[in-house]
Structures are given as structure tokens and as C-alpha cells.
Amino acid sequence: MAHTYKITFLPAGKTVDAAPPDHPEGGIHHEGKPGSILDVGDRHGVAIDHSCGGFAACSTCHVYVVQGLESCTPAQEDEEDMLDTAPGLKPNSRLACQCVPDGSRDVVVEIPALNRNLVGERK
Q1: N or C, where is the chain less crowded by C-beta within 10 Å?
Q2: What is the 3-state secondary structure (H, E, C) of the chain?
Q3: Residue 68 C-beta-side C-alpha neighbours within 13 Å
Q4: CATH number, domain at 37?
């Protein structure tokens, strides 16, 4: 079983303690896959837009995994299909709702400017 780890959300610089879903401190599941970047962010008050509710049916939760990508679950075909529609696609792009770190290392995630603007306008 993996240990607790940290996720830092950029550009806000907010760092939160996280635990993989199989860890006793994994917490109650909120949005996206259990233990996903979206799920952890949501539980800690980090606003990441997710218009489809975290079901890989849109690309609004598109993020860049700046550090720790190797500790994350591989992207599945449905996530890759949605990422193809995301603006600003990079090799380290992931959908926050589908990307689940295994807890083996800390993770740094950048929320792209377009998604930050969408989040900022949301009431």
C-alpha cells in the first residue's frame, strides 16, 4: 500500500496532503475517479472546472502534470479521445478526473490559463 503524498496545484501554489484510494486516509470520494487529481482537489477546495461531472466526457478538467506523471495511472482510450479536444495539448496533459497518482511520489499539477479563466467565471 502506498503512503500519503502531496499534490501542489499551480499557479496558486496550494499544496495539499493526499492519499491513494486504497489507503485508509484516502477519504470519501467526491468527483472523478476515486483518488484522482480532481477528486483530491475537490476535497481540498481547489477549483478545477469539470463540466461533465468527472466522467471523461469533456476536456474542461485538462491539466498539466509537471512532476510525478510516472506515478499516475496511464491514460485510457476515452481520456485520450477527450484530450484530443483540449486546447494547449502537451505531452504531460491529463484529465484531472481520470489521472490517479499511486502515492509513490509527490505530484505537481498546473491548471492551464484557459481552465483557470473558466473556473474564475463560475459562480
Answers
A1: C
A2: CCCCEEEEEECCCEEEEECCCCCCCCCCCCCCCCCCHHHHHHHCCCCCCCCCCCCCCCCCCEEEEEECHHHECCCCHHHHHHHCCCCCCCCCEEECCCCCECCCCCEEEECCHHHHHHHHHCC
A3: 20
A4: 3.10.20.30
Total tally of structural domains belonging to the chain: 1
Q: How many CB atoms lie within 10 A of CB 16?
A: 15
pLDDT, tens only, 76-91 = 999 999 999 999 999 9
User: Rounded to two decimals, what is the model's pTM?
Assistant: 0.86
How far apart are alpha carbons 10 and 64 in whole angstroms? Answer: 9
| Domain range for 37 | 5-121
